[in-house]
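Shipment paperwork, digital attachment
Item: protein structure file
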Amino acid sequence: MSEQRKYEFTGETREWRGVTLRQIRAVRAIGLITAGTIGGWIENEKNLDQVYGDAWVFDNAQVSGDAWVFDNAQVFGDAQVFGDARVYGDARVYGNARVFDNACVSGNARVYDNARVYDNACVYDNARVYDNACVYGNACVYGDAWVSSKIIVATRSDGYTFLLTPDKDSILRIIAGCQYFDIEQARKHWRETRGGTQLGDESLAIVDHLERMAKICGLIKGDGK
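Attachment content:
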């Protein structure tokens, strides 16, 4: 299995909280990225898969793809970006975090600790995904949302994923696709947009399920939130 290296270091470095980050440059075309494209910043080659075309080993599995770090984005520590994942803008991925498959992290987002972002999930704006949280499916975490280890997941019959988690103010939020609601807002949305349909009925049933699970898990106490 021959290696086809994707990138090299430009020689430019920057310091961030005692970590030396190194700028990358594509040495070959990677999807829509042309050879010579300047990328973002990583600490070392374990942060971004280096092998293009042939397989790269991660957790005893072989993966390959077009993963890339763009702009001023930073990936460091033991974090890894691989598959066809993208990290853009001023985003940071660090700690023991993993971003893979077709996932995207952008804007001023942060993914850290043992968090996982994968499938077609997106994390952007000022969102934070951390602790042991997993964001996946078609979920989008954005705005000022904070997603930690306290997360409950349900999936509709069409594969649409619903996540329930407390935000930074401990208010329970349902994240589904690019929708970000508290529980009552979620009910109102699916009644108004899909009322009387199978997917609408499923959506409302999932909201009820998430609320019950939140009570069981202690995220809702008594009649409070």
